Amino acid sequence: MAEKAENDTRQEIIRIFRRYERLGLAREGLDPVRAYKRIEVVCASRRSKLEMLALYDTMRVLYLTGEDDVLCAIREVYFGDPGHRITASVISDRVLRCAISHYCDERTVYRRLKKARELYLRIRKNLESYQGEKWTML
Fold it and tell me: What predicted TM-score, i.e. pTM, was given to this entire model?
């Protein structure tokens, strides 16, 4: 049962990563003010805004801490062709290509992706704990 819940959570996070790219937030060099304004405009619900904001913060933390290998894995596996549904076989193929191009093992790529998902969940949990009266980005 716990494995099914973990798999559902993983699929939901992958969906959020793909939506993040589809909204144009995955561009390198996107400054925080523009990103927050874009999130404010394109996301209707509070939950959607929290998801995108948490993912933006996740990507910034990974960049600022020098986790380039994790960022590369995210870009090569989760990003790309955001309009189409991604299947497990597509993810496996992309992980294999990423592993070959970066001279590492597939398990290493999966560990890097897991690290990003776990960081996202921690940041998202912290954002959700905010009990402000009104949701404002700036």
Answer: 0.86
